[in-house]
Amino acid sequence: MAAIVPRKYPHPLSPSREGGFVLPLALGVSMLLMLGSLSLQTVALQGHFDQLNQAARSRDEDALVGAAQRLVAELNRSHPCLLPLPLSRWPQEGQACAGPSQQEALLGRAGAFGGRLIAWRPELQQAEALIEADPAVPGGIARRAAFRVALQLDPPRAQSPRLLGLRGVAP
Amino acid sequence: MSLVELLVATGLLLGSSAASMGLSSRVAATLVEDRQKLGQHERLEAEVQAVEARLLTTPQEPFSQQLSCGERLRMLVAQLESQPPQAGVLRSLEVPAGTEELLIRLRSGDQERRRLYSPAAFGGCGEAPAAPASGDSALAMGEGEGQGEGHGAI
Fold first, then answer.
1. Residue B1 lies in a domain
2. Which 66-95 residues of chain A touch chain B by CB within 8 A?
3. What is the pLDDT of residues A6-53, one digit of tens each?
């Protein structure tokens, strides 16, 4: 009498010897797809942020160019005796055409010309001005720009500030 | 290979493909938009350079004469108006009320650049502090020529 041997059926979710490669393969392909898409998204976002930074930089550049124009106009109009003097000598030797309050207005934060004069370095026929503007957005980066200004000493007169460069200033 | 395994793998592939395609389409849209904005930015930058070059090459001889700031402002405006802006750039010239300054607005798409120039910074004008009469003349010009700004619209 033959013994009854129970037949073994494979469990539906258990890996069979001849199968079982489809699920890992699908998992791998899915992971690759998602990783590829996410890296593309990261690259696109990076480009987007670069563009936002570029726009902010352009806005700051425009503001600083306007500030330089106002500063040079104000110096030409009302304080020409300051033009041949470096900034450090303004308080002593610039009193002839600019009192302390007027100098404060030129140097002060968000002053009369929309920026803050950090340095004024006159040479023979030109001067270099360093101007800082407050950040366009609260908590943003303040930017500082250098300008070259054509200078005439007799009579003192400044002309045509040209932007040399722009950089951010750490808060 | 069981049927359940096949179904799960198919669902996984379909889901990840759909998500990947969604992300990719968003990336493509972002890239197209960024490309457009980059083009606008470059056009505006080129126009800013052109405007500045034009202002800086304004003849200097008259500036060394005794011209009022209002007259020099008119010369700057005339200098700019003689050259239309580049294609795709909208340019407008304004004289803010009560000032002797020239505000140039450049617009391309949804991007804008604003440059402010003062005639007194181009060699000086009006040795004395601005008199009310000169301020009035600048304002009058702003209401006339300055705001008839449609020039340059492409």
1. no
2. 66, 68-70, 72-74, 76-78, 80
3. 666 555 555 555 557 888 999 999 999 999 999 999 999 999 899 988
Domain boundaries, chain A: 24-169
Domain that holds residue B141: 39-146
Instruction: Note the pLDDT tens digit of each residue in A43-84.
Output: 999 998 999 889 888 988 999 999 999 989 888 888 888 999
By the CB < 8 Å criterion, does A52 face chain B?
Answer: no
Query: Do B89 and B76 touch, CB atoms closer than 8 A?
Result: no
Domains held by chain B: number: 1
- Containing H/E element for B50? helix B3-56
List the single residue in A12, A29, A58 with the smallest CB-CB distance to B13. Answer: A29
When mean pLDDT is compared over A67-76, B124-133, B138-147, the highest value belongs to A67-76
User: Are B19 and A20 a contacting pair at CB < 8 A?
Assistant: no
Give the length of chain A. 171
Give B-chain residues touching A18 at CB under 8 angstroms: 1
Which among A69, A149, A51 has a CA at the least distance from the CA of B44? A51
For residue B9, tell me if it sits in a domain.
no
Q: Does the pLDDT at position A129 exceed 80?
A: yes
- Any idea what DSSP says for residue B47? H
Is the CB of residue B47 less than 8 Å from the CB of residue B90? Answer: no
| B113-125 pLDDT per residue, tens | 999 999 888 876 7
